[in-house]
Write a structure and sequence with these properties.
The chain is an alpha/beta fold and 238 residues long. The protein contains nine helices and ten strands. The chain folds into two domains: 158 residues, 3-Layer(aba) Sandwich (Rossmann fold), CATH 3.40.50.300; 52 residues, no CATH class. It has a six-stranded mixed β-sheet, sandwiched between helices. Strands 2-1-4-5 form a four-stranded antiparallel β-sheet, covered by helices on one side. The protein is globular and about 50 Å long.
Length: 238
């Protein structure tokens, strides 16, 4: 049984400067953990370090109790860690189905992944480059789901999308968690993200400055605002 993702005292530099500083997060299986913070807070750097895109200098990353900090990107993916990066990177000259097939050659896995997005089913043979931004984001998420991940990192999947599209995508994220996936969601629409989340952290200058249940943070917007601005101390909710 999956237990989720555990990050302990992780430090990640870029160009010799620490961007993520001693971050510890608990991302249980079956829950959505929301990560908030202003631009430049270190959120993307953290997710890239977790998936193995860039190296961390210290700390632990455990998936289902196994320390994967020494694994490369491919080995982490094979261990069950999925990562949906910013930017909706589809293969425009491939069809929707072929984009998902890149992740796995199993027809059943492709069908299951696309089934999460009914809009894509009739468009499975359409070139991904001709899709709308929202549809492309669905393809990217479906591609990540095709590997049946134990934990999924979602980095600003709403970037450049209309709020109505975001409202369509977030319930799917909630469904994934309800099915047992450990989800770490970085999202600019804080209220929408907190509405589907279980717990939440706010990152400022590479460090956790506020944490609690998603409901607690949603009900205390002033505390969240202060955390974004770096004027609050670390708080742990119940």
């Amino acid at each position: 049984m999956s237990t989720g993702l555990e990050i302990g005292d992780l430090t990640v530099p870029r160009a010799g400067f620490p961007i993520v500083r001693g971050v510890s997060l608990h991302i249980p299986a079956g829950e959505v953990t929301v990560l908030l913070g202003a631009n430049g807070a270190g959120k993307t750097t953290l997710l890239e370090a977790l998936s193995g895109l860039i190296p961390a200098t210290s700390g632990t990353v455990e998936l289902d109790g196994v320390d994967i900090a020494g694994f490369g990107r491919v080995q982490r993916a094979l261990s069950g860690l999925g990562h949906v990066e910013q930017g909706r990177h589809v293969f425009g000259e491939l069809t929707v189905a072929e984009n998902v097939e890149v992740a796995t050659g199993e027809a059943g896995a492709i069908d299951r992944a696309l089934a999460m997005f009914p809009e894509l089913v009739p468009r499975r043979d359409v070139l991904a480059g001709s899709l709308s931004g929202g549809e492309q984001q669905m393809v990217v998420i479906a591609r990540a789901l095709a590997r049946n991940p134990k934990a999924l990192l979602l980095d600003e999947m709403s970037l450049g999308l209309a709020p109505v599209i975001v409202q369509r995508l977030l319930p799917i994220v909630r469904t994934l968690a309800d099915e047992g996936v450990a989800v770490l969601l970085v999202e600019q629409y804080a209220n929408l993200a907190l509405g589907i989340g279980n717990s939440a952290y706010v990152l400022n200058r590479g460090a956790v400055v506020l944490q609690g249940t998603a409901r607690e943070l949603a009900e205390n917007p002033d505390s969240v605002r202060d955390a974004y601005l770096g004027t609050s101390a670390v708080t742990t909710g119940g």
